[in-house]
Every structure is written in C-alpha cells, then in structure tokens.
Amino acid sequence: MASGEAxxxxxxxxxxxxxxxxxxxxxxMDAVAVRARASKATIYRRWPGKAELVVTAIxxxxxxxxxxxxxxxxxxxxxxxRMRAMRASLTGQDAGLLLGLLTAMHHDDExxxxxxxxxxxxxxxxxxxxxxxxxxxxxxxxGVDRAxxxxxxxxxxxxxxxxxGEPLDDTFLTDLVDGVxxxxxxxxxxxx
Length: 192
Prior knowledge:
The chain is an all-alpha fold. It has helices spanning 3-22, 29-36, 40-46, 50-62, 75-91, 95-105, 109-126, 128-137, 146-164, 170-191.
C-alpha cells in the first residue's frame, strides 16, 4: 500500500473510531488529525469538511465501491445479485454508527446534504447496470422509475436490518424481488 493510501486509511479509521466514541456532533478535525498522526492540512486537502470525511469513512467501511457483477442473463437474477450486494454492505456496517449518522442528519444540514448526494445516489446507481441490461434485452422499457426501485429496495433492507430485526436471508431477498421489486418495475413501466 502506497504511503498516501496508508495515510488515507489511517485518517478514515481514526474518523470511524471517533464517530463511535463521541458521535458525529463532537468529532473535531484536530482530533482526527492527532489520532491518525496526520496534519489537518492533509485532511483538508482530501476532504473539504467533516461531513464529507465521515461519509467517506462509512462508505469505505461498507465497501461501497463494489466491482461490477457479471450479467446473469435476466432481470430477476440481476436484481437478486444487487440485493445480495446491498445486504452485505448494510450488514457490514456498524448499526450504531449508521443510526448516529442518520440522527445527526436531522440537525446538520451540511451533513444531510452530503449523505443525500453521495450515499443515496450511490444506492440509486447500484441498480443502473441491472436496469440497463434489462432494457437492452427488452425486458423493460427505457423509462422505468430507477429512483423508486432503489428507494423501496433500500428501505426494506434497512427496515429488516435496523427496525424489525427479522432475517435478511435469501428467502426474504427472493420474496422482495419477486413480490415487490419486479411487480413495481413492470407496473411503473406499463404506466410510464
């Protein structure tokens, strides 16, 4: 790992540690710098503020930069693959960190803006390859509601992981894809 990459990893690890210890509101950039053994200038060259730094740290821990999955040949299997990847990302996150971040969003407009711009858009883009391939195969028309698909799929995973505590097993993902997401895509495609 190159020196710059090691420095970035140290900064992101320090950010997550402090987030868990003191919460978003009380994180200070000087404390991140001290813990990461980096200068504040180094941090600010890469991240313009605390919100961007925290969101990057959480995304990195969750493995948001997943590689493109191969085309399974049909929309259903493509959606199942996407939902499995989202499940792995969601269950790989520290629930306390994520819930603390969501709580902080309610009173920090800057943080809310960064989270919405980066994390929510990432969730929406996660479905793009599956939709693009389905459109190319003729399974869906080009005007399907991608945002609604991402919102419903993400919300149901989030609810299971953090609200109901019910299992996020393959049976649930199959039921979600077959009973909710595919009908949603096809109903919205017909009326579009």
